[in-house]
Amino acid sequence: MNKALKALTLSVALLASPAAFAAAAPDTLARNTTNEVIQIVKQDDDIKNGRSSKVYALVETKILPHFDFQRMAKLAVARNWNIATPEQQQTLVDEFRSLLVRTYAASISSVSDYKVDFKPLRMASGDTDVIINSEVSKPGAPPITIDYRMEKMGEDWKVYDVVVDGVSLVTVYRNSFSSEVRRGGIDGLIQALTRRNQRK
Prior knowledge:
Strand order of the largest sheet: 1-2-3-4-5
Shape: globular
Number of domains: 1
Structural class: alpha+beta
CATH architecture: Roll
Strand content: 15-25%
Distance between the termini: 15 Å
CATH superfamily: Tgt2/MlaC
Number of helices: 8
């Protein structure tokens, strides 16, 4: 996995806690819940040592409920989304979610090594789409800038893209998904995602 994608997976692993995401301003909840998940990892030796059952449980319960996978998949598949049937679209959402579960789980144990500094939020009253800016650092490594693109859905804020040092998670996948569709159509993309998700 290249540096940019590693950073993207780390950044997504820093968001957690369903309760906090329901009411707080997006920057406040991001800051508070990032601290929470870091503390969970620091205090749980099983997670730090990569015990898969606990890592996946943390990812499923604390992180993934706060992502809009429908929008993320649609953005990643881009114009090819419109040629997919409703059934294919749902399968793409499911497989894309599974892909991110596996990717995030692989990096969750390293979260406790990082310090996260959230920048002041630029948000007007009534905004429902915002960008949360942050900088992630650890000793001996240059800092990484991370932007969370979030939308308000009802009372909840959800992430629909993450940009690390100018590299968008959605764009990273869009390029590879487009290549798969050119080779084998929508079914070819689904099969490629399924194969990737079945790897040990």
